[in-house]
Design brief:
By secondary structure, the chain is of the alpha+beta class. The protein has helices spanning 28-35, 52-62, 116-130, 145-153; strands at residues 13-14, 18-22, 72-81, 87-96, 100-107, 135-140, 157-161, 169-174.
């Protein structure tokens, strides 16, 4: 773990169509309009940010890249189009308990169903594997079929689900079960 007052360094990740840049407070201005879309939150247990200023303050906290108690690393990347630099969403990994990566992603609605979530998530997980992270979990709303399919394609399996309606599903994977090669285009 980094020293007490040292911010962990995060790399920029690149794929064929995307550049994943470490999130900073300066990203709030570009991200706020898309994150204000209430439809984006259909399958999430979250609300749109109240203001660009509130989002910038939240991003400033995440910029530390480590929790206040130093038990977690917060790795958040802005997903950008390689061609235009336009933000398309974000992918994040909370690294906890040494070798556990908690994965989450959000793709702005106008970029849905184009394979960007899978491409960005593969890049983030590949980086985490290089960092010796061995186990991964993701939490998904059971109605979010696209995310359920994506995680299954990546080698995740349902690990647990609540019995109450609307309770999220938890998916798990490890180094051996992951499938990170892009799917063949049909």
């Amino acid at each position: 773990m980094a020293e007490e007052d040292e911010t962990p360094v995060m790399p920029t990740l690149e794929t064929e169509r995307l550049v994943l840049t470490p999130l900073t407070a300066d990203d709030a201005a570009a991200m706020y309009p898309e994150l204000s879309d209430s439809g984006l939150y259909e399958h999430m247990d979250a609300d749109p940010p109240e203001s660009e200023a509130q989002l910038a303050e939240y991003y400033r906290q995440l910029e530390r890249r480590v929790s206040p108690d130093r038990d977690e690393r917060w790795l958040h990347w802005i997903i950008r189009s390689r061609a235009t630099g336009e933000p398309m969403g974000f992918v994040r990994a909370t690294v906890a308990a040494g070798s556990l990566g908690i994965i989450a992603y959000t793709i702005f609605r106008r970029f849905h169903r184009q394979g960007f979530a899978g491409e960005a998530t593969r890049a983030a997980i590949s980086h985490l594997l290089d960092e010796e992270i061995e186990h991964f979990i993701a939490r998904v709303n059971p109605r979010n079929e696209a995310s359920r399919r994506l995680l299954t394609r990546l080698g995740f399996e349902v690990a647990s689900s609540g019995t109450a309606p609307g309770t999220d599903l938890f998916f798990a994977a490890d180094r051996q079960s992951l499938r990170l090669e892009p799917a063949a285009q049909v």
